[in-house]
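Quick question, first post here. What does this chain look like in 3D?
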Amino acid sequence: QMDILLILENWVTTVKQSVQALLDTGCTGSCIHRDLVHQAGLTQKPYKRAIPVNNVDGTPNTGENITHYVEVFITIRNHWEKMHLLVTDLGKADYS
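> Answer (accepted):
Ran it through. Tokens below.
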């Protein structure tokens, strides 16, 4: 895993924001912290059923089950792609 700088683009408003992200090759899904979703003004879309979240050691995540996702464009250097990110609590972070 490593920290990288990327550009997060709001799919709806096309507003772009530089953010520090954790690239974790062992993760089974792509997630975004719920605080960053609110701070960036991203539109959340609901899942039909909640997704339970466990930490790597098998214990339940401190946040609630995943109930929403966001659709964004992610740019890392000269690569960009449209992504669906699961909205969850990823612990403490500074989004300023």
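Residues 8 and 74 are 5 Å apart (CA to CA).
The domain at 2-88 is CATH 2.40.70 (Cathepsin D, subunit A; domain 1).
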